[in-house]
Here is the input.
Amino acid sequence: MEKARNAVVQEARELLIGVEPILGQVATGDAGDAGDTVNEIFRAVHTIKGSAALLGFERLVGFTNLLENVLGHVRDKQSGLPDALRALLVECFDYIADLVDAVAAHKEDVEPDIGRRERLSQALQAVLDAPRYWRIELCFNEDLLRSGMDPTEFLRLLHSLGTVHDVHTRVDSIPPAAVMDPESCYLSFSILLAASCQREDIDGIFEFVREGSEISVHEVDVLDDALDGGFSGPQTVLAHSTHSPSQPAKGHTTGHTTSPLVRVPVERLDALVDLLGDLVITGASAAQLASRHGDTALRDAMGTLERLIGQMREATLGLRMLPINEVFESLPRLVRSVARDSAKEVTLTMTGGDTELDKSLLEKISDPLMHIVRNAIDHG
Here is the structure.
């Protein structure tokens, strides 16, 4: 059970680190193609949820399931990420990181922040419960009044489907008074309707006046309205990195379904390094024997073997080298949290993320670096 728990925590943290640059771009509106961005975030949430479900971490499963439903809803609408939802996503992932930390500390049954969870859950549910918004453009047939129909009756029927948020009367089609026919209808409207209905339901209202009229109905994205008053996002924290968004930092994947990374326990790497050290010593001894023997072909072969052993040594030692970006990419979450708690506006700039250090050294500098950044915000 402990190994499985550690595996879930490690995978979740890797996914959170991997999605951090995407969230930074989302927060600043630089996320590029919205569809790809939503897909990347959706996959991370789905994987975290699935792994947590295997071990019954219900609090983590429940929240990620709700967030997954919202992301699926946004993806199906194919309408991009509204500004209010961008801020909401960033704080949701910060909260997921807290839930993962609770699992790591064997406190998965203890809610880390009940007020925060309720607030985020209500905001996410508001997205799912939001009605569909329709923009209706009406230009009635001039003979509408002669046929005994009242234009305002159609507005009343629209009210029966949902809430009419806006009616804009257009006057560009009204002729000068000298040539106006009092029995002709010159009215045109632009209407915003919020209703949980299908387009066919709206089309049905205008079925008997469609001939000769110009009527268009299309869904519009005003998802921000669903979040107004329900969520106040954290202060914007800008994160800049030296690597291009289209080229992920070394050591990370872009979140696609296949990954070039393989997890190897550090103990196995250490054992490999020890074996390689023995191989270097044995190879050197064999080279000396070949030199004493005086066989030219044997000396050449041993020279080639020594060169290959040297290359293998460099490659093996490089397996323990990781980009310092491994540490850097956990900083935006810390900065957002401290900035929010201290009510300060903070700009985080990160450079040199591709610099590689030994894994043991990265582990030693991680906590001091976090402490330095926290103090810089608290006392800066």
Summary: The two ends are 44 Å apart (CA to CA). Strands lie at 132-139, 163-170, 188-195, 214-220, 238-240, 321-323, 347-349, 356-358. Residues 287 and 302 are 6 Å apart (CA to CA). The chain has 13 helices and eight strands.
